[in-house]
């Protein structure tokens, strides 16, 4: 009995999470120093920094560095450092962004049913989804961490911070711009012009560190290579693991690439209209922002421009929060099973990436996009049928009259008291 009581103490989960993450990071550092891991993404970043320093072409390898010149300039200092030191700094930066962004999100009121005292469980559930990305040195942990910071900053109306946390990852990967555009739909006057200025300023920064003609040429090469890189025509070995993979490679549906592009754009517009509709229906800010974060996380991996196995880390925080939330409030068994199935499918494929990467059958690749679809189904079912806030206890007629009288007298004494809109309108 005393043993089971330990699991009910928040401190146990917090300490366990700290130990698990510290051990995982230490193992990755030791593996790198011993030459046992495969940080191919990090090597591409550092090589781009080296090319930037020497004014060389950045986009010679179509499977290598495909990011903006600003990203190459960011990694220039890493090229001066010893490989071990550079990897450790990059590893810790990614981990700090991911864990810090999740902590900032939990401190807001976006998920009121989740007890923050037990947040250690959330960090533990997130760990297996993160190891593969950190092992190869991908930037996805940094990207989703900054996006969580952005959503948390919007909740407390720190607009400059929110804009910065959208603009920076946008120059690493294009996906975060979708989140920024959705935020513009719910706060256009406070966020839209700030985002535009931040993107322009971030785009100009590389001109401060290299000759302007070289930077202009690299921007032109970046845009040209991205436009010409049609990943829908990739062989099965390199094909994106997104909705196209399910429709074309698994379902064998006769969908043309131009029509799938319309699907990508149409679903993005649909999410924007959904956010506008939610605002028009007077949803609470917490509900709108949690919907925005969940839905854009699913859209980035299902309909984004370049989804790989490691890209699904962008979905992991939303998926973990959704599953934990489902166990902290009343949900029908089928709805809870839906999000749990999505979690298990993601866990299976992330395990394959980290430990069983020789398995390359189509059925196991389909687990990730199917998981994203299941999570998307959970999101809409939860948002459209669940009242989101805990149900208020029913009042009898006498208590209703008493409450009504006291509310009237309170309002008459304090003109600032206003009735709250119905959240489930």
Can you summarize this structure?
By secondary structure, the chain is mainly alpha-helical.
Question: Largest sheet, described in full?
Answer: none
Mean pLDDT over the residues: 85
Molecular shape: globular
Number of strands: 0
Helix proportion of residues, in percent?
A: 55-70%
The fraction of residues in strands falls at under 5%
Topology (elements, then pairings):
Elements: H1 2-6, H2 10-33, H3 40-53, H4 69-74, H5 76-80, H6 83-107, H7 119-136, H8 140-155, H9 159-170, H10 176-186, H11 188-204, H12 212-228, H13 243-250, H14 257-280, H15 285-302, H16 316-326, H17 333-355, H18 362-365, H19 367-385, H20 397-413
Helix pairs in contact: 2-6, 2-7, 6-7, 6-8, 7-16, 7-17, 8-9, 8-15, 9-10, 9-11, 10-11, 10-14, 10-15, 14-15, 15-16, 15-19, 16-17, 17-19
What does this structure look like?
The protein contains 20 helices and no strands. It has one domain (16-388). By secondary structure, it is an all-alpha fold. It starts with a helix and ends in a 12-residue tail after the last helix. It is globular, with a radius of gyration of 23 Å. The longest helix is centred in the first third of the chain and has 25 residues, at 83-107. Helix 6 (83-107) packs parallel to helix 8 and helix 14 (257-280) packs antiparallel against helix 15. The model is unreliable at 388-425 (pLDDT under 50).
């Amino acid at each position: 009995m005393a043993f089971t009581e330990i699991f009910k103490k928040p401190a146990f989960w917090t300490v366990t999470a700290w130990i698990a993450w510290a051990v995982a990071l230490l193992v990755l550092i030791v593996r790198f120093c011993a030459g046992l891991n495969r940080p191919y993404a990090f090597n591409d970043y550092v090589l781009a920094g080296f090319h930037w320093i020497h004014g060389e072409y950045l986009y010679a390898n179509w499977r290598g560095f495909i990011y903006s010149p600003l990203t190459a300039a960011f990694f220039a200092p890493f090229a001066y450092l010893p490989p071990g030191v550079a990897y450790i700094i990059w590893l810790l930066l990614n981990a700090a962004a991911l864990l810090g962004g999740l902590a900032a999100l939990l401190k807001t009121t976006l998920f009121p049913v989740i007890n923050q005292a037990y947040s250690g469980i959330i960090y533990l559930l997130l760990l297996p989804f993160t190891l593969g990305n950190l092992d190869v040195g991908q930037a996805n942990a940094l990207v989703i961490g900054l996006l969580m910071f952005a959503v948390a900053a919007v909740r407390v109306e720190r607009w400059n911070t929110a804009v910065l946390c959208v603009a920076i990852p946008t120059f690493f990967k294009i996906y975060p711009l979708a989140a920024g555009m959705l935020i513009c739909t719910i706060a256009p006057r406070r966020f839209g012009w700030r985002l535009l200025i931040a993107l322009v300023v971030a785009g100009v920064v590389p001109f401060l560190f290299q000759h302007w003609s070289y930077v202009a040429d690299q921007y032109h090469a970046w845009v040209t290579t991205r436009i010409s890189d049609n990943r829908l025509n990739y062989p099965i070995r390199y094909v994106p693991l997104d909705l196209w993979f399910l429709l074309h490679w698994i379902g064998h549906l006769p969908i043309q690439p131009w029509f799938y592009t319309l699907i990508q754009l149409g679903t993005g517009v649909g999410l924007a209209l959904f956010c506008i509709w939610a605002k028009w229906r007077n949803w609470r800010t917490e509900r709108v922002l949690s919907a925005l974060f969940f839905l854009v996380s699913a859209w980035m991996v299902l309909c984004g421009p370049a989804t790989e196995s490691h890209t699904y880390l962008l979905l992991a925080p939303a998926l973990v929060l959704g599953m934990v939330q489902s166990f902290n409030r009343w949900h029908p068994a089928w709805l809870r099973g839906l999000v749990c199935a999505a979690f298990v499918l993601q866990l299976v494929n992330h395990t394959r990436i980290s430990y069983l990467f020789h398995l390359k059958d189509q059925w196991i690749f389909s687990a990730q996009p199917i998981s994203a679809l299941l999570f998307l189904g959970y999101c809409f079912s939860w948002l459209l049928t669940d009242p989101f806030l805990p149900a208020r206890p029913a009042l009898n007629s006498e208590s209703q009259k008493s409450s009504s009288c006291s509310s009237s007298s309170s309002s008459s004494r304090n003109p600032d008291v206003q009735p709250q809109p119905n959240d489930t309108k």
